Amino acid sequence: MGTEGAGFRLIAGRYRLEERVGRGGMGVVWRASDQVLGRQVAVKELLPDDSLPDDDARRRRERTFREARAVCQLRHPHIIVVHDVVEQDERPYLVMELIDGGSLADRISRHGPVDAAEAARIGIALLSALHTAHEAGVLHRDIKPANVLIESGTDRVVLTDFGIAQVAGATTLTETGSFVGSPEYTAPERMSGLRTGPESDLWSLGALLCTVLSGESPFRRDSLGGILHAVVADDIRPPVQAEPLLPVVRGLLDRDPDRRLGAADAEWMLRTYLETGRTPAAPAVPATGGPHAGGRVHRIGGSRTPKTPEPYAPTQPDLPRGPVPSAPVQPLPKRSSPRGVLVAALLVAALAGAGVSAAALLLHRHGDGGGGTPGGTATSPATRTGTGPAGSPGASAGTTPSPAPSGARPAPAPTSGAPRPSSGGHTAPSGYRTAQDPAGFSLAVPEDFTRTPQGERVFYFSPGRTFRLGIRITAPQPGGPQGVMERSAAGGPSSNPGYHDGRVTRTTHGGHPAAFWEFTWNGFSAAEGPRHTYDLCWEEGGLLYDVWVSAPVGKVREAREYFDVAADTFSVTGV
Description:
Helices cover 25% and strands 21% of the residues. With 575 residues, it is α+β, with helices and mostly antiparallel strands. It folds into 3 domains: 9-97, Phosphorylase Kinase, domain 1, CATH 3.30.200; 104-166 and 173-221 and 223-302 and 313-318 and 338-363, Orthogonal Bundle (Transferase(Phosphotransferase), domain 1); 381-572, Mog1/PsbP, alpha/beta/alpha sandwich (Protein Transport Mog1p, Chain A). Helix 3 packs antiparallel against helix 8 (263-276) and helix 6 (224-232) packs across helix 9 (341-353). The chain crosses the membrane at residues 341-363.
């Protein structure tokens, strides 16, 4: 993001950014040219968190450099090579090897799940990579398919995106009150803030194996609250496709981190499966040696004396979702707990750690699937007054698929603040397509969003209309973009039920006068639940352009990415 287009930005006097190739919750990845060595590299631009105070932002930047330098020391064939860490305009940039190939998430999306042998091959590579990282004191903390690359031609598995990694002894974002990571792949002890360690990465790998085998994480639910409850409390039901590797999956998804399967054991079990077609049972605890010559470490960090802590006890499972398999895999066994209140305490801690309102999430657990009246329809009051989201509030950069909001308010805005100026027209990032709209513009939208014109507004809806991207083009109005947004904000309570936390900021977009409006509201129905809206209005070429995205409050990070990409890639094409 920035005022300069791709191909014009030179970072640290050496790396010329050429093309944006990806975007995640922590930053933007560029294809770049190393002007000194004459080679192609990948440059990750770590975007600032506008919600952090200046002191926290400075500490975050310092921590990023410290931990990135630690990752630079890792040398493993299945870990991305980090060449350099530089800073420009007080923003960190990671310079990495450029992998010719897509992510594991892309592969699953395009070609479907893989068989057990391929899942075992991927698992072995990642376990070996994690063992090296953990031995060096580096925790990844965001293991998921979007952060695993598959190199074209060689099928080499490469673990990437250590952007939120933790180095032993370093202060973490979690410790300053913000949750980082992807909830569907986050271990319960991390979710509840009790502890974090190498075992947490191994839980994430267990969830990843389920995803590559079935196409979906076993913890996927319709809301953030549902995901957190599934991770911390629900029965864990591995997919039927995981049956060949079930001892590994069960071992990695043990809620008790002290009983969780270690990297060395899991790797040995997967290798045995590839060699024999059968997965052996997990070794017993404690570890005192094993089939490997010279003995085997049964748990990463296994030098500590095994404890017998109070186990994590699951509660009632979710109702079935869709057809029940003819031969379902049995859920992981329950362990009774003499303190039934433990699960409730863990769930509350997890919700608090994720920076959301526990009450709001539980009340609206089934209410953010887009089932209510979409914004901008003729039946909603929003279509009768105002401009932009006030006139159509059904409006808002790994893969990932499972975003976690930060901040501690019921209506979070973790990446609040006006979008940075953009020249527009950038190439669509991975997972997006460029929509050439007949209304006279083009922009990048997620691949599964569909176009729905509604009067003078054009919408692009996600499946189920959970996310709503809207565009409106009108003649200039008095006061310009700022006046339009201020009038819309003033009418917010009448056009957006439960309107609150609204603010309008003067900004620019592509060098043009602009205004940014952000607010939270209750949605058009109780079933729809609370929503958050990002809206950018600017004047260009004698017309007024309005782009907005609306989403459930539990999905604001993903919504902000959709919004930023739409605004960044928006281009006027003419009718």
